[in-house]
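BUG-260 | component: ligand-complex export | severity: low

The export step for adenosine-5'-triphosphate jobs runs without errors, but we want the raw record kept on the ticket for reference. Input record follows.
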Amino acid sequence: MSALLEARGLRLAFGGVKAADGIDLAVTAGEFLAIIGPNGAGKTTFINMATGYLRSQGGQILFDGAEITGRSPREIVRRGIARSFQLPQLFSEHTVEENAALAIAARDGIWSPFRPLLRPAWREEARDLLDRFGLLPAAALRADALNEGTRKLADIAMAVALRPRVLLMDEPTSGVAASEKMAVVETLARVLRSSGVTAVFVEHDMDVVERFADRVAVWAQGRIAALGSPAAVLADPEVQRNVIGIARPARATGGRAADA
Ligand SMILES: Nc1ncnc2c1ncn2[C@@H]1O[C@H](COP(=O)(O)OP(=O)(O)OP(=O)(O)O)[C@@H](O)[C@H]1O
């Protein structure tokens, strides 16, 4: 199957630190690909390069067959790649509905801080979007009053407002209470799958990876150390030792070992 988003030999060093040391990755249309790996492995750097926030020093990025290496974030969004950040980028003094409406207005390229009135059509689309994310009950709340799970969903809803074909999410569950995590991912997976959006997400919670990823890429020192199905990758002793051992204790037969 042909790749929708592809990295070929991507390289970027910060001084002596090789944050990307020849990344080759082909993301297939429709798939959910999880990126795992220890802190500092280069996961965020990859997202930053794929979305135009960092310029690679070598290699190429292709989207739908066209090279987008070195394009600006705005141009990359326009082509159909959106992202969310580890820390949600909401306008804290605005309501959830206003945040969604602002994202829609920005997508249409007609919102201006000098003409800040939101059009009824944007609000209508915003409410529709929030409904899909189960966020209507929070529509009138200010963004700074939300719990972390709702904040993350609202942030991702803003990215979805841009109508991307690929969405890259940097740790969509970080900071979300353990009791809320699965519901948050369940919701965002349902919305993305029903909209046909391809997802790439950095994740430290292996239960989330196991349940929602079609494939897993393991990052280590700026390289992809393993790539495959969650079952295969998470069972790899090297991955268990170097990545999962840090995030999750090994499982015992018939149940989870020492998860407390
Ligand atoms: N702007 C920058 N300037 C200098 N060094 C940087 C910069 N961005 C990242 N690095 C370094 O590049 C390496 C990869 O960082 P990156 O944030 O991509 O890792 P990560 O896998 O996303 O880590 P984490 O899981 O902690 O978010 C790290 O050693 C980091 O310190």
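Assignee comment: Attached the raw record above. The chain is about 35% helix and 25% strand.
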